[in-house]
Every structure is written in structure tokens, then in C-alpha cells.
Amino acid sequence: MAGATASRKRKVSQFLSDSDKASAPRHAKATLNGKVDWDEEQDYERLARRRQKKGDKPESQRLPIKTPEGRILAVEATEPERQEPEIDDEDKDLEDEELPEEASDDEMEEVEPPKPKKSERQRIVEVKEELATMASSINEEPEENYHLLRKLQDLFDSESNITIKKLTLITQATIFRDIIPGYRIRPLTAEEQTTKVASDVRKLRNFEQSLVSSYKAYIDTLGKVARHIGNQLCTVAISCTCTLVDTVPHFNFRQELLKILVERLSVRVVDEAFVKCRGTLEEFFRQDESGTGSLEAVRMIIKMLKAKDYQVDESVLNTFLSLRLLAELNVKASYDTIDQPGQKMKKKDRLPFTKKEKKAYKEKKIVDAQMKEAEAVVEHEERERNQSETLKAVFLTYFRILKEKKPTLMGATLEGLAKFAHLINVEFFSDILAALRELVEDAQTDADAEEETSDEEAAQSLQRERNLRREALLCIVSAFSLLADQANEAKGLVNIDLSFFTTYLYSVLLLLSLSPTIELSSKSLHLADPSSSEPVEIPSSKVNKATEIEMLLRSLDVVFFKAPRGTGEISSARVAAFTKRLSIAALQLPEKSCIALLTSLQNLGKKHSRKVHPLFVSDDMVGDGTYDPFIDTPELSNALAGSAVFEHALLANHYSPKIREQSKLVLKSGTSNR
């Protein structure tokens, strides 16, 4: 009983203590079994929160990462993770009171500060990086990234900065030069477009058609830009066009590229772009193997000449001199593949064949040889046909210029006739020689008028414009080259007297020896005479920049050393008269020209030693009368009667040791009677 009473007392006392605790004030801390109440974080929750400032970085909710090097890095918060700071109700009320009631969303947008503009230099740097990235992507995988070609063209069309436009044009040219295949791409037919093909074939077709369309748009852009002469983009467009003509002349739209170059050559202003276009065309003519591209370019040039009434620069016509007109019928690459026989395999390296295998191998070898021969014949015929059409068009242009006597193009025309004389048909000889004779007569008439008239300025202006003396020398070279190259093929049918041209050459020797510009061309550096009030003008109409002494030596070479058989035997009087006059002319010439002329005299004495021997040995002289050095007909000068080449006695005492030595060789060749 006593134990039960004690336990009941404890329960009552505990109930009383719990009731007292319930009646205690709220701010007093509650205890349980003598300890502080477990809900002690309530005071921390009731504390004021710290507001986040503008400069503070938001806390990242992402886990740290481990780099490949083993370092652990914390990941910063991104834009979506950023949270706006909490705003108390009191602060929110204050902000609402500060904003006016009339403020709208549009007004709030206008208040935002404008974005800073990039400088031109920064834009150019960024565009360079973008162009480099696109070019690398296209070059690495052109069949996957061909859509970037259109993006490059759009960049050029939308851009206004000249520098960026230049960079875009150059980048496109470089890309097309690298990705263009080694064959032409034809457009797909309607049937081919509807036919189902493999994925690889479809992928290749899409790339090829997109490449052709982008290339066409780029060439059109080059053509438009190249027409604006004087613009900064014009030079870049011409350079890009020349690059494509040099590197990918086999691809589509070759005619459009050649048209751009020919249009630039129609301008009479000779600048850097003009010279670059001319050099590109000359190299294109030299490298063209099939002749198709050369024929297209020649027809364009001839059409341009007619439209301009032949009022173009002389160097445009000189581009025809680079043509491969029936001179090289074999492709250069054939020397490495077809023309050169392959090396025979050694006996120890041969594999043993059965009789059937040997027979099949021989039959295959015969078939391959026939196929190669058939392909070569077709290629040869095509090349010959193209070059024949080109030759026909070139000669028609030459004949038309000779007939109309265009002053600025006469020299280039005569030079072309002299080079391609072996390709002219015999039927045209009479017409060509008649035109050449008219030119020589014009030169003689002009020389006579210059001596008689007192109007020297008019004569000098005509000489500067046409340089008739030079044209006459070219006529001599052309006339003799025509017959010399065709005499063997004509089989004795060519029997034309060319003494008229020889007589003119004899008459002009003394005038040429007194010319102060005999060793100078239009590109030679020449100082004016300090004692003269008027400087000596060098004629600018120079064919291939050859000097007058070079033209004279060429004329002597075709008259005495390469004369055709049909022109007859050269008489002793003519050879002696030329020897005498050339010796007189050598006294007036400069050192280099004198040595060259004495060399020709030495060769002339070796070939016609019996005819010139009386001039060097006085005992063999037979004749009446005296020598007339001023008459212009060699047969009437009477060089063999009472004349001797005493000029070589003066040349033996010349200040130049080379001239003295060369004069001794001339005397030695003249005195040796063979």
C-alpha cells in the first residue's frame, strides 16, 4: 500500500508541473526534463534577411566538375539560374510609389541604353575570321558545306565596306580554284532528275549543280565589277578573273571569263590591269592544247577589233604571236604516257603464264594499242581543225588591216605575217606581196617628201605615228619569209621577183647607220642631248621591242642566207654593192651594232667568196668607170670597178679591240678564194 501511494503522488506532482508550464508566458523558453525546448531555431527564422546587392554574384546551384587534368572547378551560375532578389512588402510599396502612374512598356524600352557600335577595324577582323572559317570548312568537305558558297555571295551583296568586298572576292576565287573538279559539269536532263539514284550519286549531283550555280553567280559579279574602270574593286576583279583563267580554263563558263579579259583590252589606257589581262591571254594561248579555247578567244578579240574600228593598242594584236598554230600538234603530256615506250620488265620479274593467258594478254595488248591510236587520231584531227579555223580568222584580220592601212597596227600585222608565213597558202601570195610592196612604196615616198619639203614637223609626226622605215624592213622580212617557207612545198611553182625589196634595203642602209636610235627601243633609258634644244624621240610603235639594228640584221639574213630558190641567183654586182655599202655603214655605227654588222659581212664573204673577192684583192678587179656611192640601185653603183673596201683599213685602227679583231676576220674571209 505504501508503494502505490507514492507512485500516485508522483503522477499528481507531474501533472501539476505540466499545468504550471502551460500557464507560463509565451516568451519564456520551454523545458523538458530540465533541458531547453527543441524548437530553438524559431528565433533564427524570425531574424531579418540580408538583401542581395547588384554587384554580388548569384550562388551556383550546379555541382563542381573535374577537368581532364584532375583539377576540380566550381561551375558559375548561368543566366537562367540567376534569381531576382527578394523584396519585402515595405520596399515594394516604396518602389511602387516612386514610379509614375503614366509610365508604359514602350517608354521603358526607350529608356534602355543603346548598344555600343563596333569599329570598322573590329568588323574587318571578325569578317576575316568568318571567311577563313567558311573557306576551311568548304575545302575540307565541299560536298557537305557547299551551301556556304551562297552565303559568301550574300555577304558580298549585302556588305558596303570596300575592304570586306575585296576580301570576299579573293576568298571566293581561292575556294573555286581549289574545289573545282578536273572536268566540265553538264546540266541534268529532265529524265535524269526524275530517275531514282543512290544516295551517294544524289549527293554528288547536288554538290555539282550547286557548284555550277554559285560559280555562275560569282562570274557575273566579276563581270559587273570589272566594267567600272577606276574603281577599287575593278583591279581585284581582274586579278581574280586572271587567276581562274590560269588555273581552271577547262571548267564551265570559260567564255564568260575570256569576255571579261577582252573587254578590258578594248580600253586604250594601258595600266596594270591591262598588262595583266594581256599576259594572261598570251599564257592561255601557249598552254591551250586542244585549240578550242584559243579559237574562242581569237574570235572575241577579232569581234572587239571590228567594233572599235581597230583603234586599240598594238600589243592586243601581238597576243596572236603566242598562238600554237599548227606548230605543236602533239600534246606535251603524251611524251610521258603514250609517246615514250615503257620500260621492259626484267626476265626474272616476269610471272609464268600459261598458253591461254599469254594469248589473252597479247590480244588485249593489241586492242589497247588500237584504242590508243584511235584516240590519238581523233584528238589530232580535232586540234588540227581548231587551229585551222584560228589561222583563218587571224589571217583575215591581218589582210583587212593591210588593206585599210591602220597606222597603229601595221607593225604588229607585218610581224605576224613574218612569223606565220609558212602557213599561208600559195594562192594568197600575189595579194600579200602587192600589199607589202605598197607599204614599201609609201616609205620611199615619205622619205623623198621629207627631203624635199620644209615642213619637218609634219614629217616627224608621221614618222612617230607609223615608223614607215621600220614597217618597210618588216615588209622585206615578211616577203622573203613567205617564199622561203613555201618554195619547197610549191615544187618550183614559186617564181616571183623580189628585187624591189632588195633595192629598198640597199637604199636605206646609209640612213639607218646615221640613226641615233638604232640601238634603242621604246623601253630603253635614253638621256636627252644637252647641246640640243629638242630631245631625240624614240618611236613608241615597236613590235616586240626590237631595235632597228635587229630588224636590219633580220632583213640581211632573209635576203642573202635564207632566200628561196625561186627568186633566182644573186648577182655578183649586187653582192659587191651590198658589201661595199655595209662596210661604209659600219664606220658610223656604235660598237655593238658595228660588231653585229661585221659578223654578217664575214658570213657573207664565206658564202659568196668568189663574188666579193675582187673587192679585197686589187689584182682581180676588171671594169670601167668609177664607183657611185649615192645611187640607190645596187647593180648600177659599179662597185666592182675601181673600188675597194678600204673602210676595213680604218676599222683596223678602231678604238675597240673587238671591232679590230672582227674586221680582220672579215678581211680573211674575203681574201680566201674558194
Automatic annotation (TrEMBL):
GO molecular function: chromatin binding
GO biological process: DNA replication initiation; ribosome biogenesis
Main location: nucleus
Record-linked Pfam families: CBF, NOC3p
Stretch list, region Disordered: 1-121
Domain called Nucleolar complex-associated protein 3 N-terminal: residue spans: 127-218
Sections of the chain in a coiled coil: 364-391, 433-460
Residue ranges occupied by any CCAAT-binding factor domain in the UniProt entry: 472-661
Subcellular location: Nucleus, Nucleolus
Gene Ontology cellular-component annotations: nucleolus
InterPro entries cross-referenced by the UniProt entry: CCAAT-binding_factor, Noc3_N, Nucleolar_cplx-assoc_3
Similarity remark: Belongs to the CBF/MAK21 family.
Name this protein carries in UniProt: Nucleolar complex-associated protein 3
Organism: Arthrobotrys conoides
